[in-house]
């Protein structure tokens, strides 16, 4: 009989569910978030309460079985938010724990291979977000940027921006997942915001952003147009390096 374990969508919650599955010696198990749970026609379900100690035991156990880079893949894959990622990771962990040797890079195993593919996709999105995020100065003196990445990469890019903009207060907000990371010159915190129904944070509104920001964007657009050589325009190559779905972050594309 299949057992469905329901967790709170956090990584620690997922690891707690993995611990629970091993502790209960479940042979057939499905792990899902509370928002995706549907009562099964057959089988049972159980809500797992996130337990930091249990999560740490699973993570430390994985550390003993694989390298740091291989361990990183499991976290990256989780952030892909693919509908079946929990089951993929769980089966990969079962395979890893069952082997007396390190098999975390055994790509003949379908689950290990899938983890690797998801890691590459998430890693590519991480680097693109680090390259294409554009800040705009608000009237409160905070540099604001909104993003809508395919994957949940905010936890992966926060250290990059903390080091690069250590002397500025900034906020990067994921409109798709409705949370952001805010740096207050000392630490990075996770925050949520409430926007008015008719407010579009992707637009540089004079109500929210500083006058100097509006002037800067106009200067940048003028510079971009003046340096663009029409006869050398290669749109195919341009889109290859800067895909269209990232244009909404660039002021010169507005």
Question: Which features would summarize this protein structure in a list?
Answer:
3-stranded parallel sheet; 8 strands; 254 residues; 8 helices; alpha/beta; 5-stranded mixed sheet
Write structural notes for this entry.
This protein is α/β, with parallel strands linked by helices and 254 residues long. 43% of the residues lie in helices and 14% in strands. The protein has a 5-stranded mixed β-sheet with strand order 4-5-6-7-8, covered by helices on one side. Helix 1 (11-23) crosses helix 2 (52-63) and helix 5 packs parallel to helix 6 (154-164). The radius of gyration is 22 Å and the shape is elongated.
Task: Provide a brief overview of the structure.
The chain is α/β, with parallel strands linked by helices.
Write the layout of secondary structure elements.
Elements: E1 3-7, H1 11-23, E2 29-33, E3 44-47, H2 52-63, H3 68-78, H4 85-98, H5 110-132, E4 136-137, E5 143-147, H6 154-164, E6 170-174, E7 179-183, E8 188-191, H7 211-227, H8 235-241
Parallel strand pairs: 1-2, 1-3, 5-6
Antiparallel strand pairs: 4-5, 6-7, 7-8
Helix pairs in contact: 1-2, 3-5, 4-5, 5-6
